[in-house]
Amino acid sequence: MIIKEQLQESHGMCEYAVYVQALIFRLEGKIQESLELFQTCSILNPQSADNLKQVARSLFLLGKHKAAIEVYNEAAKLNEKDWEISHNLGVCYMYLKHFNKARDQLNKALQLNRHDLTYIMLGKIYLLEGETDKAIEVYKTAVEFSPENTELLTTLGLLYLQLGAYQKAFEHLGNALTYDPSNYKAILAAGSMMQTHGDFDVALTKYRVVACAVPESPPLWNNIGMCFFGKKKYVAAISCLKRANYLAPFDWKILYNLGLVHLTMQQYASAFHFLSAAINFQPKMGELYMLLAVALTNLEDTENAKRSYEQAVALDQCNPLVNLNYAVLLYNQGDKKGALCQYQEMEKKVNVLKETSTLDFDPEMVDMAQKMGAALQVGESLVWTKPIKDSKSKQRAASGKPSSTQQPLGSNQALGQAMSSAAGYGKTIQLSSGVGISAPLAKPPSLPLEPEPGSETGPEETTEPQERRKEKCKSRLAAE
User: Fold this and answer.
1) pLDDT tens-digit profile of 79-110?
2) Which of 3, 135, 225, 381 has the smallest number of CB atoms closer than 10 Å to its CB?
3) What is the CA radius of gyration of the chain?
4) Where are the alpha helices (H) located in 265-392, listed in sequence order?
């Protein structure tokens, strides 16, 4: 009302009143209206860099990144020493996937003024490019500059967790929890580390705290489900994983885990359903095809099981379990030559793993390989000397359908790797940004741009509304 009176008195020429009205429109979500008013401000005062920054910010919020870059460049001509302009240019270039230009602008912003938010965005660009080591270096520098920033500490801890450096991960996550005991990301990550090492009850205690803060977190319910799976409470595991799937129907890890638990319960049709869905989202993962083949074998669809194994073998060059399961199927179908070929491929992979890592092998896998070697009369060349328990891998050899002339090999179950999805934080780390710091101005300042919450590629990508996805998921579950 005061703005309206002021504009009537000044015949619409009061720049400050128009500026504040535009800010109000933006807060109400009327981005287009705010853009028009900020453009009016820039006409009333063309020498104001603040007005141009606000015009550019409105364009950014509308997803018009190229136009925003042009306006920010005009603002830079009026004020070359403004870190905020360089930072926001870097964000716009990031969403356009011009990563080199984005890095240049963000580094320029850091030279002008060091801010946590700029470090976060620079690290995010390195993550989008897949350069985890460089991202870690950026976050380490940021933590030295701002040692009490829990967002930076948590992100650095998650990156170390992704690389398997558990000691460093625990250290940084612990520091984050020291400064903010209710930081749910750090608690979730700490719980996942405990879960990875088999401390399911302690992990569940941690998750109970997280559930109070973010009750609709898909990674949370996924991890809770896999804790119950580790405790052999399969019905509870499926219930929690179904909830995670309802909240994030396009997350392949959750679908993978649902397929895994259904395989364990010998519900092969349901396992086939979820594994097929996971393959649609992650078509380059050999282990998914292997588990699908196990389900198809138990559904007596041998031909498609063979095709699935062939795809798994072509995609997975490291996991010996793929070749062992395929060998079991071929042997049970009477194809000893093919089984021997797969067995030899498995031995090559095992030898490579023994040379390049300290990974132990699951006792059941070793036992199955020894039986297979004896059946194929290659027992003298076994690559294992003694069964060693693997605390991380919970994979077991699967069975094929036995033929009438051979003793069947294997069991009726297949446990794929129980993937607790703190690993989900590895590939899709969501970096929420802090609040930018600006010097006091006569006008309310524009703010540094931040990524859209939960967005990895920016607001130009359209995603299906949450409600609509939930309705789809409801109908699918009802049909099932």
Assistant:
1) 778 888 888 888 888 888 888 888 888 888 88
2) 381
3) 28
4) 268-281, 286-298, 302-315, 320-332, 336-356, 363-375
